[in-house]
Amino acid sequence: MRPVIQVSGVRKVYGSTVAVDEVSFEVNDGEIFGLIGPNGAGKTTTMECIEGLRTPDRGTISVLGLDPFRHVYKLQERIGVQLQAAQLQKRIKVWEAVDLWASLYQKKAIDGENLLTQLGLADKRGAWFMNLSGGQKQRLFIALALINDPEVVFLDELTTGLDPQSRRTIWDLVRGIRERGKTVFLTTHLMEEAERLCDRVAIIEHGRIIDIDTPERLVDRHCPERTVVLATDDAVAEERFRAIPGVEAVICNDVRFTIRGRGDDFVTEVIHCLSENRIRVRDFRTILPNLEDVFLKLTGHSIRD
Amino acid sequence: MMLRGLWKLTWIEIKIFLREPLGAFGTIGFPVLVFLVLGRIAGRGQAPSSFAATGFIRVGLPVLASILIALSAVLSLVTIISIYREGGILKRLRATPLRPQTILTAHVIVKLILTASTLALMVLAGKRYYPVGLHIPFFSFTIALLISTWSILSIGFLIASIVPTARFAQPIGAIILYPMIAVSGLFVPVESLPPALHAVARVVPLTYTVSLLEGIWRGDAWSAHVGDVAALAFVFVVCTALSAKVFRWE
Question: Strands A225-231 and A256-262: what pairing?
Answer without folding.
Answer: antiparallel
